[in-house]
Design brief:
Elements: H1 4-14, E1 27-28, E2 31-32, E3 37-43, H2 51-66, E4 72-78, E5 82-84, E6 91-92, H3 95-106, H4 117-125, E7 130-135, H5 142-152, E8 159-164, H6 171-177
Parallel strand pairs: 3-4, 3-7, 7-8
Antiparallel strand pairs: 1-2, 4-5, 4-6
Helix pairs in contact: 2-3, 4-5
């Protein structure tokens, strides 16, 4: 009692193995993580063409390469549909998996609408600890997106970090989600 480091050590010992936290220095565009299971949901709609999309790709690659070996990750890009990594579940952050993901991320290109709902549905099925949702604009049906997240996260405590990227048009909805 009253000894901060001892209390933190006890808390870490009591976490289940799949809830073990990693170094909290893991961040995407400066937003911090929680846990070990990370999902990135990135807008690849037509408005992300050019510098916006390449900036998002570069930062995602930088973040992937900073993941510790005990982390797991998944990536979804979205426009009118979901474009997820072609794997069944979160990948362990091994050097091989990270470099494979970097190549996959680099092969994506923008175009189409702005609807993250399919990517969000897939994301909550794989039970992440932290989600990063990056978008530069307004969603097709913003209230449906918020309702979907409320329902999926009702009995969980998934951290959702949102990023209004290069454009503040969707900032209000992204703040509600966060």
């Amino acid at each position: 009692q009253g000894h901060g480091p001892a209390a933190e050590n006890l808390r870490l010992l009591q976490l289940k193995e799949d809830e073990q936290e990693v170094d909290d220095s893991i961040a995407f565009f400066g937003t911090r993580s929680k846990g070990t299971r990370f999902v990135f949901i990135i807008d690849k709609s037509g408005s992300m063409t050019g510098r916006r999309f390449s900036d998002a790709q570069l930062e995602l690659i930088k973040t992937l390469r900073s993941l510790p070996s005990k982390a797991f990750f998944m990536i979804y890009f979205f426009n009118a549909t979901s474009d997820g990594m072609p794997v069944a579940n979160l990948l362990p952050a091994t050097p091989h998996n990270i470099e494979w993901a970097v190549k996959w991320v680099s092969s994506r290109s923008p175009g189409g609408g702005t609807d993250p709902r399919q990517s969000l549905a897939y994301t909550f099925q794989i039970q992440p600890h932290t989600i990063w949702l990056l978008s530069d604009g307004k969603f097709k049906e913003p209230q449906m997106v918020i309702r979907q997240i409320d329902m999926a996260n009702r009995f969980r405590s998934v951290r959702i970090n949102t990023l209004a990227f290069h454009d503040r048009a969707g900032e209000v909805v992204l703040q509600q989600i966060a």
